[in-house]
C-alpha cells in the first residue's frame, strides 16, 4: 500500500485546528487570486509548523512589529513536495514545487523568507531551483533586521541552543539563531556543540534511521551537556526539533522552548506552546476539554478529534520519550 498522504497532511491540519481559532490566523492556507496585491515579502511557513502554531503567531507578530509589507502562507496548498520526493514520487514532488513557486510569484515579491528547513533544503540543495526572487531562511532574515527591533524587556535566563550542522546552510541558520538570542537583553547564551548524528533536522525519519533508543540518548546527552554549561533552557532551532524534544521537559532536567519564543519574549511577544502543553499533560480528556473552543470554532468532528488526541497526546506516548 502506498504512503497515506491524506493522513499525513490531515493530521497537520487537525493539530492546527485544535490549537488555533480561525480569527487568530493571519496566515494564508489557500491559493492567492491570479493577480493579488503585490507584497514585498512572502513568508513561506511550509506545512509542519502548523502543528506548533504558536511559532507562526510569534514570527508573524515580529514581522508586524517590523512593519513589513508581507503575506504569510503555508499548508498543503503550498507544499514544497519534499514528502512526495522522500516517498519516491519524484515527478509529483517536482510538479508541486513548481506550482508553489508560481503561487509565490503572483505576489511579485522582492524576497521569499522560508521558515521550514526542509523546504529551503529541498528548493536550494535538491532541486537547485532557479527562483525569480531571492530566498533566505527566517533566522538569517531576522538577524539582518535586528537593528530595527526595539526590545521592551529583559529576559533573565541562561540558554543553550540546539541546532544542526550537517551542511553550511544549517550551520548558518544555527549561527543566526544564536546571534538573535545573544541580542536579547539579560539573556546568557552558553555554548553547546551539536551532535552531527542528528542530521539536518529533528524528524521522525531521523528517529527511525538512528533507532529511537539512540536518538533519545543523543537528546538526553545534549540536555546534560547544556545543564553542565549552566543552561536552564534548551532553545530549539526548528519546529520539528521543538515538537520532538519538548516532551523531555517532563523529566525535570531542563525547559525546552523554541528559540523565537525566547527572542519574542524580549519584544513583549508571547504565545503559549500548546503542543508542548498537551504533550506534557499526556491526558486526552484534559486536552480535549482545553481544545474544545478551537475545535468547535474550526468545525472539527469530535470523534476524529478524540481519536487523534488519544493517539498523539495519550499517556502511553509518554513512554516514548521518558
Features:
disordered C terminus, 15 helices, alpha/beta, 11% strand, globular, 322 residues
Using DSSP, what is the number of strands? 8
Strand content: 5-15%
Average pLDDT number: 95
Shape: globular
Enumerate the strands of the largest sheet in spatial order, edge to edge or round the barrel.
2-1-3-4
Radius of gyration: 19 Å
Helix content: 40-55%
Q: Structural class, from secondary structure content?
A: alpha/beta
Q: In oligomeric terms, what are we looking at? A: single chain
Largest sheet: 4 strands, parallel
* Element-level helix/strand string: HEHEHHEHEHEHEHHEHEHHHHH
Number of helices: 15
Euclidean distance between termini CA atoms:
32 Å
Give a verbal description of the structure.
The protein is an alpha/beta fold. Helices cover 49% and strands 11% of the residues. It contains 15 helices and 8 strands. The protein has helices at 5-19, 53-65, 82-86, 90-105, 117-126, 138-144, 168-182, 204-210, 212-228, 239-245, 259-265, 274-281, 284-298, 302-313, 318-321; strands spanning 41-46, 70-74, 111-114, 135-137, 157-162, 187-190, 233-236, 255-258. The chain has a 4-stranded parallel beta sheet with strand order 2-1-3-4. Strand 7, helix 10 (239-245) and strand 8 (255-258) form a beta-alpha-beta unit. Helix 6 crosses helix 7 (168-182). The longest helix has 17 residues, at 212-228. It is globular, with a radius of gyration of 19 Å. The relative contact order is 0.13.
Amino acid at each position: 500500500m502506498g504512503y497515506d498522504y491524506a493522513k499525513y497532511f490531515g493530521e497537520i491540519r487537525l493539530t492546527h485546528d485544535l490549537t488555533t481559532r480561525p480569527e487568530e490566523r493571519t496566515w494564508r492556507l489557500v491559493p492567492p487570486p491570479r493577480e493579488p496585491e503585490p507584497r514585498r515579502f512572502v513568508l513561506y511557513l511550509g506545512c509542519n509548523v502548523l502543528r506548533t502554531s504558536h511559532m507562526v503567531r510569534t514570527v508573524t507578530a515580529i514581522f508586524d512589529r517590523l512593519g513589513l509589507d508581507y503575506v504569510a502562507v503555508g499548508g498543503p496548498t503550498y507544499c514544497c513536495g519534499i514528502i512526495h520526493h522522500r516517498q519516491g514520487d519524484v515527478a509529483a514532488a517536482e510538479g508541486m514545487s513548481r506550482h508553489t513557486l508560481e503561487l509565490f510569484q503572483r505576489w511579485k515579491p522582492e524576497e521569499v523568507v522560508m521558515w521550514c528547513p526542509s523546504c529551503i533544503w529541498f528548493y536550494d540543495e535538491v532541486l537547485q531551483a532557479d527562483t525569480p526572487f531571492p530566498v533566505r531562511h527566517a533566522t538569517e532574515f531576522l538577524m539582518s533586521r535586528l537593528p530595527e527591533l526595539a526590545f521592551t524587556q529583559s529576559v533573565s535566563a541562561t540558554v543553550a541552543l540546539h541546532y544542526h550542522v550537517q551542511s553550511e546552510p544549517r550551520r548558518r541558520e544555527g549561527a543566526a539563531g544564536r546571534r538573535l538570542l545573544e541580542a536579547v537583553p539579560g539573556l546568557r547564551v552558553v555554548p553547546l556543540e551539536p551532535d552531527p548524528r542528528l542530521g539536518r533536522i529533528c524528524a521522525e525519519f531521523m528517529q527511525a534511521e538512528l533507532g529511537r533508543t539512540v536518538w533519545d540518548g543523543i537528546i538526553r546527552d545534549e540536555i546534560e551537556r547544556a545543564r553542565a554549561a549552566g543552561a536552564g533552557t534548551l532553545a530549539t532551532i526548528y519546529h520539528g526539533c521543538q515538537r520532538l524534544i519538548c516532551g523531555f521537559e517532563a523529566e525535570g532536567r531542563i525547559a525546552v522552548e523554541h528559540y523565537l519564543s525566547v527572542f519574542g519574549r524580549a519584544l513583549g511577544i508571547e504565545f503559549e506552546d500548546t503542543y508542548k502543553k498537551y504533550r506534557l499533560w499526556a491526558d486526552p480528556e484534559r486536552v480535549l476539554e482545553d481544545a474544545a473552543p478551537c475545535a468547535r470554532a474550526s468545525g472539527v468532528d469530535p470523534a476524529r478529534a478524540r481519536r487523534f488526541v488519544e493517539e498523539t497526546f495519550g499517556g502511553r506516548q509518554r513512554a516514548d520519550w521518558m
